[in-house]
Amino acid sequence: ESYRENFAVVPERPFLFSETIAQNIEMGASEPLSDEALDTLIKKSALTVDIAAFRDGVKTVIGPRGLTLSGGQRERVTLARALASPAPILLLDDVLASVDAITEETLITHLYQEGRATLLVSNRVSALARANLILILDEGKIIALGTHDFLLDHNELYRSIANREKRR
Predict the structure, then answer these.
(1) DSSP helix/strand/coil, 8
(2) Contact (Cβ atoms closer than 8 angstroms) between residue 130 and residue 101
(3) What is the reported pTM?
(4) Which of 56, 106, 133, 151 falls 20 to 30 Å from 42 in CA-CA distance?
(5) What is the DSSP letter of 61?
(6) Cα–Cα distances in Å, from 34 out to 50, 89, 100?
(7) Packing angle of the helix pair 35-44, 101-114 (nearest 10 deg)
């Protein structure tokens, strides 16, 4: 249990409860959130515009497993829940898979401002570019590690993925 308390996890397939958006976010907190704290988490998770579009705002009930939300909205509500946690380490498994490039940049900027150790699993080079250390895995084995610039210069696989991503 003490090991798990150190991690706030956002899994690749986010799970939400048939509760309000606010209640889903608050589940990560160790104590009730003030309206200001909830607003801050919503901003950090790039959900402000989405929530404003819902008739009931943060009091919108999202249905079983959050199916009334888009994939990107589910990811970001789950991210807000992780950010509400006092855990010193964030483990984010492909949390940016369903967001556009502008939202991705906003989220990455907020994550760097968090000041927590963050383990980010991603297939997007753009999401990894500012990381202190990038590990490239192939079938569960580390095949390369380094900074973004180092890997661009020294790893053909990383360079080819980055080039492919630029062309999109």
Answers:
(1) strand
(2) no
(3) 0.90
(4) 133
(5) B
(6) 20, 23, 29
(7) 130
